[in-house]
Amino acid sequence: MPVGTLALQRRPPTLGVNDLDEILARLAAHGIDYEPVETYRSGVRHGVVLDPDGNSLSLAEGPTR
């Protein structure tokens, strides 16, 4: 990459959801794959859904109270 060129990292859009497990189960029932769910120290749970073309969508669920 030439010096001075700005490299932009592509990140999938993130949608906040209320029940990540339910959504992932419904997507899996329709043959849609997803990456393993990560849980952060803050309690936020995060998963990435993949479509057949390799596009991704990030889903995040806030910590339980």
Automatic annotation (TrEMBL):
- Entry's InterPro entries? Glyas_Bleomycin-R_OHBP_Dase
- State the name under which the record lists this protein: VOC domain-containing protein
Q: Which organism is it from?
A: Streptomyces griseorubiginosus
